[in-house]
Write a structure and sequence with these properties.
This protein has 495 residues and is mostly beta strands. The chain is built from two helices and 32 strands. The chain starts with 13 loop residues before the first strand and ends with a strand. The model is unreliable at 2-7 and 189-201 (pLDDT under 50).
Length: 495
């Protein structure tokens, strides 16, 4: 696995390369929506499928994938948290797969009990390793690997840093220099009836030590990536805002805080910047909404985020995954709020009826696969029960804009006409017409709406044409499209 530089990391495998510009343009950006009429953002079609861990069927341990990397020889490697349903035991396990749906254990042989042949046992973690999980694995510039992983128990609740030459044998060089701290690190833990597992009942740190760590506080829903395009390590995790009286929900497992999303950067992956607050609920959101996680990936020249959409209210305690988008990783747009992958009905027999925790996206050619951890229990449940599932969706149809029976319209951003054909990815049950304009939105002679040949049907490659004119006359110029359509969805346009 040391040859990781042979292939891009999974999170950036569909990113536009250096020295290139994107050729596909999407319609869900705020600037486009503000120039539209009667168009509303929608998520794309999703089909669900189970994910299987070979040899783990019937096991009392539950496995949830935390991160996936692409192997140089092909296929994928997953680092997962495997835990008991009573939450008293948790460890990191390693799995390989050729398709992302059927995972086979990587035989490491480190488990002292011999029960989990693919368990990672860390050199350099003092004492108890019975509750370690939530791994993020990233490459180092010298060809080695680094893992960020949460260590619980014995007063510890910290995001420690481990390193490896092969991705299987891991060493923690400095246990007392974690990347991040949970506010409860340094406390005494107690298991008792009526308390959440590992709930802290007494703090033992000196006040000065608490203040020293406070800049690095977060909870244990954290993720680190190495952005090879910008040569920087990036961490998205939760900022714990003190609870406001009118937003507090006492049945939540952390009623004293509201969860928001922070970002930190690091040149070496060890020393982290001050946090930037990048996502918090606003006036368009439900009063009890909190953001629980943010998993991201590059696509072309922008970032797609899987945002943990957590309804905290007592009657809900549900977790959905929402799509959000950003050009810089700091300013995020949320055109379609709430569940992207729909939760299954309670009587469906599927496990994703209460919680969906979106993970990594795998490029499967004409489709993408989003892995997600699914649970039928509310977030504050005392029982941990999960199953991994996958959501397939067409490659460029994760979000778009729709029109109903009443026609809608929009004006695109300026597009560079690099091809003698304009291709529209759309599902049109009614009709669609297009107008070609200059950068200021002024119609070009011969390319008016009334001279457009109507488009109908479901295709990734609708060709936009006009009765008498050829767009070759405007090749290698900046143009815009004014689109009007009825009963259908638009996903993207290629120029």
């Amino acid at each position: 696995m040391a040859q990781h530089t042979a292939r891009p990391m999974l999170w950036s495998s569909t990113r536009t390369g250096r020295g290139e510009t994107a050729t596909t343009n999407y319609f869900f950006w705020r600037e486009t929506l503000e120039r539209s009429f009667r168009a509303h953002p929608v998520t794309g079609p999703v089909s669900k499928t189970p994910v299987r861990f070979v040899g783990h069927e019937g096991s009392p341990m539950q496995t949830g994938i935390s991160c996936v990397i692409e192997l140089p020889e092909g296929g994928y490697r997953a680092y997962a948290s495997t835990r008991s349903t009573d939450q008293k035991r948790m460890c990191v396990t390693v799995w390989d797969s050729s398709d992302g749906l059927e995972w086979h254990p990587v035989l490491i042989g480190q488990d002292p009990d011999g029960n989990l042949p693919n368990r990672v046992v860390f050199d350099g973690i003092p004492g108890d390793q019975s509750s370690v999980g939530g791994p993020s694995v990233v490459p180092l510039r010298d060809g080695r690997w680094r893992m960020y992983v949460w260590k619980h128990r014995e007063g510890h609740l910290r995001y420690i840093v481990a390193e490896s030459d092969d991705g299987l044998r891991w060493r923690v060089p400095d246990f007392d220099r974690p990347a991040l701290y949970h506010p409860h690190d340094g406390g005494l833990w107690k298991l008792a009836e009526g308390l959440s597992p590992h709930e802290m009942v007494e703090m033992v740190l000196p006040e000065a030590d608490v203040w020293r760590r406070r800049r690095l506080w977060t909870n244990d829903a954290s993720r680190v990536w190495y952005d090879e395009h910008r040569d920087v390590y990036v961490c998205y995790s939760v900022w714990l805002h003190p609870a406001l009286p009118d937003r507090r929900v006492d049945v939540d497992n952390a009623p004293g805080v509201h969860r928001l999303i922070q970002r930190r950067l690091s040149e070496d992956g060890l020393t982290w910047s001050d946090p930037e607050l990048v996502l918090m609920p606003d006036g368009r959101d439900p009063w009890d909404l909190q953001f629980y996680f943010l998993n991201v990936q590059w696509h072309q020249d922008f970032l797609i985020g899987c945002l943990g959409y957590y309804r905290v209210e007592e009657s809900q305690q549900t977790m959905d995954t929402e799509l959000c988008f950003s050009h810089d990783g700091v300013h995020w747009e949320r055109p379609v709020r709430g569940a992207w992958i729909p939760r299954s009905p309670a009587d469906s027999g599927l496990p994703d009826t209460a919680g969906l925790y979106g993970c990594d996206w795998l490029d499967r050619g004409d489709r993408w696969l989003c892995l997600y951890d699914a649970t039928p229990h509310p977030h504050n449940s005392r029982v941990f029960e999960c199953a991994m599932m996958g959501a397939f969706f067409p490659r460029n149809r994760f979000a778009g804009v729709a029109a109903g029976a009443a026609p809608a319209g929009l004006l695109t951003e300026p597009l560079f006409l690099r091809s003698p054909e304009i291709l529209l990815d759309a599902s049109i049950r009614g009709w669609l017409r297009a107008e070609l304009t200059d950068c200021f939105g002024c119609k070009l002679p011969g390319f008016e709406i009334g001279k457009s040949l109507p488009v109908c049907g479901n295709s990734e490659h609708h060709s936009l044409t006009w009765k008498e004119c050829d767009i070759r006359d405007h090749l290698f110029q900046f143009v815009r499209l004014r689109l009007e359509w009825q009963d259908g969805e638009l996903w993207s346009v290629q120029t």
